[in-house]
């Protein structure tokens, strides 16, 4: 893949000087039109070998275009805060909003390549990270993001020559570190791993552009023209293309029976038994969150369910047992303007907790396959592909030590009507009932169907759904507390088993 970049492409200075002004003007025009329309963002990845002109190119792009509409991020060794979250968390945070350009200098490719070269991860682990990256970039493309991936290449001899030139000049000596020379010692291994990664991740949605980095004029015009071509092509397109979902179609149940129809919603539990069990479970939860091994994990609890099913009351019983400094509750409503300018999952990634913390989502990312599906707030292609994107998201969370618990609180239509009327009669509960709640009742059957599809597609081994029979609030709260405690206890137990196996 790198052979064509080693031919030694060069551009005469006079040619560069004649082409640069027109290119800069065209880039600025495209940039401002992109901002004015606010329809899509651009993500530019800058990767490659040391000394191939990556930094100079990033500086030049900021000089050629309006830097107020460009966010540039350089990624080094993860900070403590970043290390306590999934690997992709810091890259999600760096994504630009629609109408803007984000330049990622040292992107999500750098860490897995470097770690594989140094022997920190196995080939199988690298391939798993490659698969995660491909899924991520495909999701970005489906969300309308233009992903431009540049790999700056130099042959081994040219890299050595370039590093020596930079080191010799007092003005550029600072650009060469001991780490650069250490990396140079592993050039052949770095090239081998990099070529494997590029071949596996150069896709139709996000192909790699390999740029020979020796001649500054050549690389500058090559990168600038490619950026202009891709932005201009998107701006000039009459209509955005609709990518069909790459998931299996939904099929109706053979016996026309939905999973929610199988639940026995009226479960018995007296107030006395409830209070006794609740006190024991809250004590158990408190001890689990103070266990020394809990600091290796975090908890994400997702609460979904019918309107008036008792999500808020169940959440309060959990938080009453936990140190207030160690949890946060995220109430999810319609996305803000800031959130609408980002890929769908962005607003949820930003709330992923650090280790030792608990985050409770009152409604969640499942809105895409529930309310947005039923109410027509997104296209069928969007909510159909959301199943696999959500599964990828939750798998990454689990691999990072997140303990996922997901609850669907189910009540009957009759019980919901009863609770709606009670809320209207109680002054401090009136805020809980809205016109939208009444409208949703008219689509009860559609929501039952959407929930059944959701559970079928997203109840996985690492992140199963717990269906809660919630006509009896006491029963529901106890089932939720017990499920949460069991999940934490099981994960901590697995940690202890792993430690025992290591000592054998």
UniProtKB/TrEMBL annotation:
InterPro entries: P-loop_NTPase, PolyP_AMP_Tfrase, PPK2-related
Keyword Transferase carried by entry: yes
Domain Polyphosphate kinase-2-related: 11-234, 269-491
One Gene Ontology MF term: polyphosphate:AMP phosphotransferase activity
Keywords for this protein: Transferase
A matching Pfam family: PPK2
Any GO BP annotation: polyphosphate metabolic process
PANTHER family: POLYPHOSPHATE:AMP PHOSPHOTRANSFERASE, POLYPHOSPHATE:AMP PHOSPHOTRANSFERASE-RELATED
NCBIfam families tied to this protein: poly_P_AMP_trns (TIGR03708)
Protein name listed in UniProt: Polyphosphate:AMP phosphotransferase
């Amino acid at each position: 893949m790198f052979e064509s970049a080693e031919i030694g492409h060069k551009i005469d200075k006079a040619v560069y000087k004649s082409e640069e002004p027109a290119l800069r003007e065209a880039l600025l025009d495209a940039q401002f039109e992109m901002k004015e329309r606010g329809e899509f963002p651009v993500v530019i990845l800058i990767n490659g070998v040391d000394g191939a002109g990556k930094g100079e190119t990033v500086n030049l792009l900021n000089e050629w275009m309006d830097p107020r509409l460009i966010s540039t991020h350089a990624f080094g060794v993860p900070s403590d805060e970043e290390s306590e979250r999934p690997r992709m968390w810091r890259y999600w945070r760096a994504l630009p909003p629609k109408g803007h350009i984000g330049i990622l200098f040292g992107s999500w490719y750098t860490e897995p390549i470097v770690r594989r070269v140094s022997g920190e991860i196995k080939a199988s682990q690298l391939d798993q990270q490659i698969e995660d990256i491909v899924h991520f970039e495909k999701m970005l493309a489906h969300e309308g993001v233009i992903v431009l991936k540049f790999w700056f290449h130099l042959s081994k001899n040219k890299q050595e020559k370039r590093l020596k030139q930079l080191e010799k000049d007092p003005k550029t000596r600072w650009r060469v570190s001991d780490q650069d020379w250490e990396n140079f010692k592993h050039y052949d291994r770095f090239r081998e791993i990099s070529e494997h990664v590029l071949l596996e991740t150069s896709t139709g949605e996000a192909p790699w552009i390999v740029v020979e980095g020796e001649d500054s004029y050549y690389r500058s015009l090559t990168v600038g023209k490619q950026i202009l071509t891709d932005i201009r092509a998107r701006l000039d397109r009459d209509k955005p293309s609709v990518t069909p979902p790459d998931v299996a179609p939904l099929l109706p149940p053979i016996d026309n029976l939905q999973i929610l129809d199988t639940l026995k919603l009226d479960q018995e539990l007296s107030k006395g038994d409830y209070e006794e069990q609740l006190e024991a479970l809250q004590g158990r939860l408190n001890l689990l969150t103070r266990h020394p091994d809990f600091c290796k994990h975090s908890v994400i609890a997702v609460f979904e369910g019918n309107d008036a099913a008792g999500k808020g009351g169940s959440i309060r019983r959990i938080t009453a047992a936990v140190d207030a400094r160690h949890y946060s509750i995220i109430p999810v409503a319609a996305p803000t303007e800031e959130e609408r300018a980002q890929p769908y999952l962005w607003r949820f990634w930003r709330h992923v907790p650090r280790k030792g913390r608990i985050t409770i989502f009152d409604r969640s990312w499942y809105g895409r396959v529930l309310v947005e599906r039923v109410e027509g707030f997104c296209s069928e292609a969007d909510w159909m592909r959301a199943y696999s994107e959500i599964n990828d998201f939750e798998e990454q969370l689990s691999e990072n030590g997140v303990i996922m618990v997901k609850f669907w609180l189910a009540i009957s239509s009759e019980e919901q009507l009863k609770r709606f009327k009670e809320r209207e009669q109680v002054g401090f509960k009136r805020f809980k009932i809205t016109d939208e709640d009444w409208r949703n009742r008219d689509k009860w059957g559609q929501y039952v169907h959407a929930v059944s599809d959701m559970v079928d597609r997203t109840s996985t081994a690492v992140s199963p759904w717990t269906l809660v029979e919630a006509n009896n609030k006491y029963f529901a709260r106890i089932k939720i507390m017990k499920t949460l405690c069991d999940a934490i206890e099981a994960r901590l137990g697995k940690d202890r088993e792993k430690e025992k196996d290591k000592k054998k």
